[in-house]
Amino acid sequence: METDISRKIAPIIKFALPMLLIIILGINFGIWAYSHYHRHISFYDVRVVGTLVNNKTLTNGTLEKVLIKDGQKVKAGQALAQIKPNVTQKDIENLQQAVQKAQEQYDNMVALSKSSTTRTVAHSSGPSAADYNQYQAAAAQASKMQQLYSIGAVSRAEYEAAAAAASSAQAALNASHTTQVVNTVPSGVTAKDIETAKTRLEQTKQALETAQKNTNLVSLEAAADGILYYTNIKIGSKITAGENIFNIGTSDSMWLEAKADKQQIVNIKKGAYADCSINGKDINGTVADIIAPAGKEKKYIIKIFIPSDKMDGIKPNMLATVNIAIQNNA
């Protein structure tokens, strides 16, 4: 006996088709709604930009060894390279001689400051009244005898005796007011002279100590946390104090820049999610700032920051593709 199932299937077919249509419409509406409220704008000429921290050496010498790979993450204070200073054994010997000479000069200054010399000085004082009266009397007698001798009133011997007495009286007068005084004279070395000599000695000692230490390799340390980037300096290069050896990119000094038209910028907001593809890596970023055009520039600049732990291998001027999520205002 055959059973007719058409009556049982008919209701199912009757209601299943509308349900299927409803499901299809619901899926399509969901896709439309999602795309309407979760769309994105793609930028293909985004560039990695920013400023780098310079890592400079304070030592003249030769770059002996590099300890970090290009593009590797580093911590502030981490050793990046080793430098052999330009200090020879001859330099050490010259500095040792300089220290010895400075020590001798200082010792001599100290010794001279404690010594003095004696000097005999002749001082004149006024003659006594008795010496002066005796000289006046002898001089008057000599003058008188000269006049008498000129007219033949006295003999030559008498005249010469009076003249000799006057000369003796004058010599006695001069000697009576000249005295010998012994003075003690200091060396002339001042406290400032000693201090100068001491400073020179300390400076030469410090220079010798520094040079002796610098015969060993000196480490160049990272100036900041970030990603290390090589410059054009190679191992074996001669370097000078103040020369930049490495660059370091930090999370707050490197970002992505995309340029957008006014029509594109309408629905892009600060804080928007950005899907970035840089150097073959997919990185999540965030719109940090939107800068309006200035001067002749007609496009807006979108600054996109990326997490510091995602910066490995990323360098300035690299190109990236960025999809920035947007939401319609409607």
Automatic annotation (TrEMBL):
Tree of life domain: Bacteria
Species this protein is from: Pectinatus brassicae
Subcellular location, record wording: Cell envelope
Keyword terms, alphabetized: Coiled coil, Membrane, Transmembrane, Transmembrane helix
Identification of the protein by name: Membrane fusion protein (Multidrug efflux system)
Cellular component terms per the entry's GO annotation: cell envelope
Taxonomic lineage from the root: Bacteria, Bacillati, Bacillota, Negativicutes, Selenomonadales
Transmembrane segments: 12-34
Record keyword Transmembrane present: yes
Cited Gene3D superfamilies: 2.40.30.170, 2.40.50.100
